[in-house]
Amino acid sequence: MTTLVAFTILVALVGVERLAELVVSKRNAAWSLERGGVETGFGHYPFMVVLHTGLLVGALVEAWVRRPDVPSALAWSMLGLVIASQALRWWCIGTLGRRWNTRVIVVPGLPPVDSGPYRFLRHPNYVAVVVEGVALPLVHASWITALVFTVVNAGLLTVRIRAEDAALATLPPVESGVSGA
Question: Which of 92-101, 119-128, 162-171 has the lowest average pLDDT?
Answer without folding.
Answer: 162-171
